[in-house]
């Protein structure tokens, strides 16, 4: 790994500053500790911190932190050698490693800072026409939804229009597929006067003649939604979109390192993106952007535009096209270490037992932990079947539920509850699990990771019991007393119910 750097520093005093500490390295020939709390030794997590929120930011293993620190010395020992000579070959190795994991060709994959960056790169490279449509969902991640909104709001014309699919969980995969298909058909019926002939290369009716390409529909599809943290049937949704002539952009921010058998060469989305710093254990921030060769003509510019940009009007374009890979090798001076830590992260995961072993443990823990947490709180899990569960699960919190939007929770009340929960979890109980309001009820999204065990879910369930009681005693007390005067029984005693009414999603993450 070190190459010239090892020779350069051999015998120097500064070399001692990068000697690995406890947990920062491992013997590949020795069996790793069992999954669960024994593996916390290999993470930088505070011993007393109970982390059920790995899905938000990731948790970096110490060997990856050590490799990144070592790399920092190498970069600054001779920035010219690193940036001019040593960086790009390692970036190629990282792209190759990621491509192998997701079933893609190396030159269809580039690395960017995060999933939001990747999404913006794709969406801002489409050439929009008046009458184009973008399909999102009520569960689309906030920054992604706002990107779509920006494209529809911007002052420059032409502008696309936005359509939204309403997902009120719990839902089955079959129901999700039907809602998706119905929204596409509804869009075409409502815009019957528009010719949607700009279709993806693999769709029926594709034409290479630019004059025949009128309007397009682009669907932004989650593979695993953030809130609730549920696995969608995105592969089947890709197939439906392809049949309907709809472009697909798969927001798979949570997929790589969590979801099994991604295989993009088989699924054939038009574009796909995922964070390597969440579930794959790479250093923040690092995300993969997949653009198959058939669609790289759309990706005219990296964000920001790099030195390797090729004008479609220039002579070089006929030779290299948009120069997709080289444009993303260097978009300006930045910290390159996250991209280069990808092989180190994958090697650590292989030492732990590989992708299948990690998934099997975390999936089972997500299922069992959520059930145990629900038992502790006297509630239930959002998805009893497990069809929606990868390695994140969702559990209803012991708070009143709404049948009519706004009957209990105004936006101001929701904000107060979110703030109280966040502060109590972090600063009083030394833990964190996602919490949000969805479909009339408060829900906790819990991440199951290799360093967790069932006791973590029990602890967080007990903490939420205390916090939710405080919410009832303080924030909701006045509302309940007023309702009791008007209509009888207090809503503080309302059980968790089966029929949910959507109000709004409150995302307490940044």
UniProtKB/TrEMBL annotation:
Residues 92-149, 213-383 form the Aminotransferase class V domain. It comes from the Eukaryota. Keywords: Pyridoxal phosphate, Transferase. The keyword Membrane does not apply. The keyword Chaperone does not apply. GO terms for molecular function: transferase activity. SUPFAM superfamilies: PLP-dependent transferases. Pfam families: Aminotran_5 (PF00266). This is PLP-dependent transferase. It comes from Lentinus tigrinus ALCF2SS1-6.
């Amino acid at each position: 790994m070190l190459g010239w750097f090892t020779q350069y520093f051999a015998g120097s005093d500064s070399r001692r500053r990068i000697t690995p500490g406890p947990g920062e390295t491992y013997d590949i020939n020795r069996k790793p500790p069992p999954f669960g709390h024994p593996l916390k030794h290999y993470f930088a997590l505070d011993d007393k911190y109970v982390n059920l929120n790995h899905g938000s930011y990731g948790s970096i293993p110490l060997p990856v932190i050590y490799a990144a620190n070592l790399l920092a010395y190498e970069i600054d020992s001779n920035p010219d050698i690193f940036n001019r000579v040593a960086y790009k070959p390692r970036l190629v190795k990282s792209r190759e490693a990621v491509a192998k994991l997701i079933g893609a060709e190396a030159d269809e994959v580039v690395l960017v800072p995060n999933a939001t960056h990747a999404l913006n790169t794709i969406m801002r490279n489409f050439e929009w026409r008046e009458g184009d449509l973008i399909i999102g969902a009520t569960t689309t991640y906030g920054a992604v939804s706002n990107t779509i909104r920006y494209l529809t709001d911007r002052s420059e014309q032409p502008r696309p229009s936005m359509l939204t699919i309403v997902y009120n969980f719990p839902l089955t995969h079959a129901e999700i597929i039907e809602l998706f298909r119905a929204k596409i058909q509804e869009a075409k019926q409502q815009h019957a006067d528009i010719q949607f002939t700009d279709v993806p290369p693999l769709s029926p009716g594709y034409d290479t003649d630019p004059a025949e390409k009128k309007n397009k529909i682009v669907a932004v599809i989650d593979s695993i939604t953030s809130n609730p943290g549920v696995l969608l049937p995105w592969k089947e949704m890709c197939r439906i979109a392809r049949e309907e002539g709809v472009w697909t952009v798969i927001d798979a921010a949570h997929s790589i390192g969590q979801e099994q058998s991604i295989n993009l060469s088989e699924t054939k989305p038009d574009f796909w993106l995922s964070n390597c710093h969440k579930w794959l254990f790479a250093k923040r921030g690092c995300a993969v952007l997949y653009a198959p060769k058939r669609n790289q003509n759309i990706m005219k510019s990296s964000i920001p535009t790099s030195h390797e940009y090729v004008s479609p009007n220039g002579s070089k374009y006929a030779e290299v096209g948009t120069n997709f890979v080289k444009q993303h090798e260097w978009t300006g001076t930045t910290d390159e270490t996250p991209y280069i830590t990808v092989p180190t992260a994958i090697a650590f995961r292989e030492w732990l037992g590989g992708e299948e072993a990690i998934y099997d443990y975390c999936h089972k823990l997500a299922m069992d932990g959520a059930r145990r947490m629900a038992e502790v709180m006297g509630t239930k899990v959002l998805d009893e079947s497990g069809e929606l569960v990868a390695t994140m699960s969702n559990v209803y919190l012991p708070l009143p539920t709404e049948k009519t939007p706004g009957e209990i929770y105004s936006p101001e009340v929701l904000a107060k509850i979110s703030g109280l929960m966040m502060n109590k979890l972090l600063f009083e109980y030394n833990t964190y699990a996602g919490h949000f309001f969805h479909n009339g009820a408060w829900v906790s999204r819990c991440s199951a990771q290799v360093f967790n065990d069932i006791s973590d879910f029990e602890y967080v369930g007990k903490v939420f019991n205390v916090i939710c009681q405080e919410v009832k005693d303080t924030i909701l007390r006045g509302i309940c007393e007023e309702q009791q005067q008007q209509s009888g029984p207090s809503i503080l005693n309302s059980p968790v119910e089966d029929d949910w009414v959507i109000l709004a999603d409150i995302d307490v993450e940044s």
